[in-house]
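Query structure, 41 tokens:
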């Protein structure tokens, strides 16, 4: 597994978690990321 695949896997885990709990701010705190990281463009 290369670096890009690990990053994609992590991003999928973050998005799935956010969808499951339905709360973006809590997801960001849990994963230690900023809310801007989950914005749709």
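Result returned for the query:
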């Amino acid at each position: 597994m290369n670096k890009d695949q690990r990053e994609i896997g992590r991003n999928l885990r973050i998005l799935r978690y956010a969808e499951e709990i339905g709360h973006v701010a809590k997801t960001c705190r849990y994963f230690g990321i900023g809310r801007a990281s989950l914005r749709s463009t």
